[in-house]
Amino acid sequence: MTGHAIDPAMLAKAETLTEALPYLQRYAGKTFVVKYGGHAMGDAALARDFAADIVLLKAVGINPVVVHGGGPQIGAMLKRVGVESDFIDGLRVTTKETAEIAEMVLSGAINKELVGWINAAGGRAVGISGKDGGFVKAAKLRRTKKDPDSNIERIIDLGFVGEPETVDRTIIDTISASGMIPVIAPIGVGEDGHTYNINADTMAGAVAAALGAARLLLLTDVAGVLDKSGQLLTDLDPAKIAALQDDGTISGGMIPKLETCVAAVQAKVDAAVILDGRVPHAMLIEMFTNSGAGTLIHK
Ligand SMILES: Nc1ncnc2c1ncn2[C@@H]1O[C@H](COP(=O)(O)OP(=O)(O)O)[C@@H](O)[C@H]1O
Ligand SMILES: CC(=O)N[C@@H](CCC(=O)OP(=O)(O)O)C(=O)O
């Protein structure tokens, strides 16, 4: 007896699904915190793919929690209203006025746009910031930096830049348990009543730690962490990351990103991955195929 001729393209599709099976089984019921960076958000087709991937995760029994950035979009709005802003080691120096604009762009425009994309893809997204239900209590970020000439640690004042001090998971659990997808803007409120601008990677790491997430996925605009010659580093641990920081291989936005990954894996998060958000369906390739993508960070 001879078998039917099978279209190789159809067979490849079926093989992709069977390749995904062990991953689907491993991840069912687990929480994945996905940070969608402002740079990766620029392209509408990519945003649509991202939203569809998030809905797919929810549909196969994974619990996705989205945290978004919006640095370039805040920058564009500040420019429009004629407000200057600087970055120190990847963090925006934030005056009271900058914090107001950051909140407007993050909690208003971007959060609702992403909620809209996910809902259009068939999901039910609920947009919140750290202020909703008071779920993120922020504190002013205390940062010091060694002066290379004198070797003295100096205090860096970033203004209203916050770090999550406590994350109450109740509101996230309530949204997730009712079949909806939380979409979180990185804004928090302090005991002092001030609004704090929180780096989105830092926020995602704090949320992932509070939830004991299986994975923290950070989607950005590079292939992953690159070495000095531009080659992708596929596997890092805290010791290797400290060395990359000391020899200046990582700079700018990659600094808070990797600090977040280290803090997350040292908390209860199994692993963190830095992924190229410019690649369509990067998340699915990383999670459900044998190839993986980007840089994996583990303990
Ligand atoms: N070693 C490195 N490997 C990759 N990217 C790096 C490295 N060092 C610095 N970067 C910078 O970090 C950027 C990613 O951080 P960021 O701009 O904050 O992205 P996002 O908006 O996605 O959070 C890259 O575009 C790159 O310019
Ligand atoms: C303190 C700080 O730097 N906050 C960030 C918040 C947005 C962000 O982190 O967005 P991306 O992930 O797109 O970079 C900012 O003001 O740009």
UniProtKB/TrEMBL annotation:
What pathway does the annotation place this protein in?
Amino-acid biosynthesis; L-arginine biosynthesis; N(2)-acetyl-L-ornithine from L-glutamate: step 2/4
Please tell me where substrate binds in this chain. G70, G71, R92, N197
Q: EC number(s) for this protein?
A: 2.7.2.8
- Sum up the protein's function in the record's words: Catalyzes the ATP-dependent phosphorylation of N-acetyl-L-glutamate.
Query: Which Gene3D superfamilies does this one have?
Result: Acetylglutamate kinase-like
The organism encoding this protein is Sphingorhabdus arenilitoris
Q: Which positions fall inside the Aspartate/glutamate/uridylate kinase domain?
A: 30-275
Q: What is this protein called?
A: Acetylglutamate kinase
Q: One Pfam match, by short name?
A: AA_kinase
Q: Does the keyword Transferase apply?
A: yes
Task: Please provide the record's keywords in A-Z order.
Answer: Amino-acid biosynthesis, Arginine biosynthesis, ATP-binding, Cytoplasm, Kinase, Nucleotide-binding, Transferase
Q: Where is this site: Transition state stabilizer?
A: K35, K257
GO terms (molecular function) for this protein are: acetylglutamate kinase activity
